[in-house]
Amino acid sequence: MRITRTLGWGMSGVLALTFWAMVIGACDSGGSAGPAGDSDAVDRDQIICDTSADCPIGKFCSPEKVCIDQYVPDGDDEAADETPPAPTRIFRVVPEAQLDFGDVQSITKPEADVAIYNDGNSVMHLYDINKLEPQVDNPFVIVDYMEASIQPGASFAFKIRMEPRGLGEAIGRIRINNDSDNAPQAELELRANVIPEQGEAEIGSDPSAELGVTFDDTALGTRMARKFLRLGNTGPESSQIVLTSAYLEGQGLAPFTVEYRQSETVIPITPDTPQIIAGGQSIPLTIFFMPNASGDYEDKVVCEFHTDSSEQTETYMVPVRATAIAGPVVMLPTVLDFGAVAVSTTAVQDVKLINNTDDATIDIRPLRLYGLTNWLSFYSFSENAGGSISLAPREYIEFQVTFKPAAVTDYSAELQVESNYQGMTFFFPIVAQGGEANQKPVARIAQTSHGADINAPLTVNVGAIQEFFGDISHDPDGNSANLEYLWSLNKPAGSTASLIPHDEAPIVSVRFDVAGNYILTLLVTDELGLQSSPKNVQVLAVAGSSIFRIEMQFTGLTGASDMDLTWILPNGTMCNESLANAAGSCLAPAGAGSLQISACGSASQCTTEIITHANAPDVGNYEVQVRFDQDCNDPAPLLPDCNLGFNREEADANLYFYVDDVLTYQITGEHFDAAGDMRAWTLRRVGGLWQPPAPK
């Protein structure tokens, strides 16, 4: 007897039991064993059934409740006696073909659901599952699977667990054996990408964001108060917090500053220079309180960050509170800030020192400067601040502090005020920066945009128009964009040449109208009024015409096949065989010289085309084009060979550029596969000289 588990309708995955039994017939009175013959009893090899669904494929349940080969109506019910449809078992699995776990952290063991459906009308049986690959150390584990029978329209679900064996891509494949009609050995691919453990970072602080940083009563004029805010990552060791910014929400409206320091060196925190806080680690932020008036102050330290598992910027805020009270001695301004001062330049600040009490006379001993960074010798007092002074209540003294930096660096110091008031010494901060001394700008002139500085005399033809680019001039202080320009032109007798558009433009043009020597001069001035040394360029204009000739020679074509040569002026005027008149001339605008063309209507006529441009001006980019115009090796272009695509040819072309009959440039070996192919190059004429052609 074989027992199988059968899944049926409405059973929510609960297994019901169906029995397939081999019934053994009883022995007859003669002691012989065999089929019952015409007996109503069941033969030994017959299978007991309730419906045809309990029978193997191709068999039917008879009225006697046994599986038989041919359907027999019982005659009791006409509708029930209709011939049933042919039994089918249709296998379908979800997900189809591939189960992808995606990224799996190495310490996790995710599970995924797999469902098998019977889309047929007969019971489908599931057998064992074979793991096809990998054969060794397979990370995919089959969970809750068993051999089962699935009723029509029902399904069977199980899970597959991914247990990482190492980092990187994991690929597996299983075979689900069954007795379906369509996929008796269905295969399912399994995939996962195992990545390192990624714990979740968690930001925290000491003091906490709830308590905040609090400064007790701070007397004006006492030493600058400071407290620490420690930012930490309370996540696992493998997690990271990327701190990209730390600033005060009030942006200086309250007298707080926040800095990250290492050995008293300020380290900036920016998106380009973030601070990484690993799990279990922390960094200290220093918060300074420097009030300039008594009162209560509030602000917030804003920390912007993201974690290693997300690029989304998050914000962590810690409140800062302080109370400032008026001290017995007050300096105005409370922080002496010189700002940036150029090296070897002297800056002066006025200072007022006040007895802030109502009833006490305070003796002030000689004032001293104490350098915190660099050295105090760069500061000096005015004469009336040098001796001991006695200040009555609310009385004050005025003096000056001078600063002359010797180097480009940051300076800081303290003004120390010793008094007899309860033996107190007061400290007032002084800060300054030594800046670069203003340097003279450098005037430069180029023939092209962003070109090299001209360091040799130029020669041009009379009538040539030349551009000069002064915008390559340089300010060593980094303010080149603020330079001002002044051009001048020394020209030969009879010349009416001028600077276009005007003599203060960064880029000017000059038309050299007569032969002779010209001298172009440029001066540039920076935003502080410092002027450069003059930059001079000598230009020699010579009389004579210039003949520019382009020859195109092509091979590989016969019959009516043709190549076309086209010359395009900077203003868009074109010259080719289609635009030339009967004399072979192309119309050129005034001042653009003259154009002549010798062309071929087809390969059977000639294989060389020539365009000649006399007295071309220096006005911009010229363009030469070569085009495979027509592919037809038959001399009669209307014959079918041309129109129906037979006898196609390919072409090769060479270009030769002559200046006053001297071969100057050449382009060879250009191959054209089919009609319509085109190549183009640009050329410039600078100072009467043709520059090399460049592919367009």
Shape designation? flat
Query: How many strands in all?
Result: 52
Largest sheet, in brief, is: 7 strands, mixed
Helix % is: under 10%
Radius of gyration, taken over Cα atoms and rounded to an integer in Å: 48 Å
Q: State the domain count.
A: 5
Reported by name, the CATH topology of the largest domain is Lipoxygenase-1
Poorly predicted runs? 1-44, 375-379
What is the SS-derived class? mainly beta
Supply the CATH class of the largest domain: Mainly Beta
Distance between the termini: 86 Å
The helix tally amounts to: 1
In round numbers, the mean pLDDT is 83
Characterize the structure shown.
With 696 residues, the protein is mainly β. Helix content is 1%, strand content 48%. It starts with a strand and ends with a strand. Residues 1-44 and 375-379 have low confidence and may be disordered.
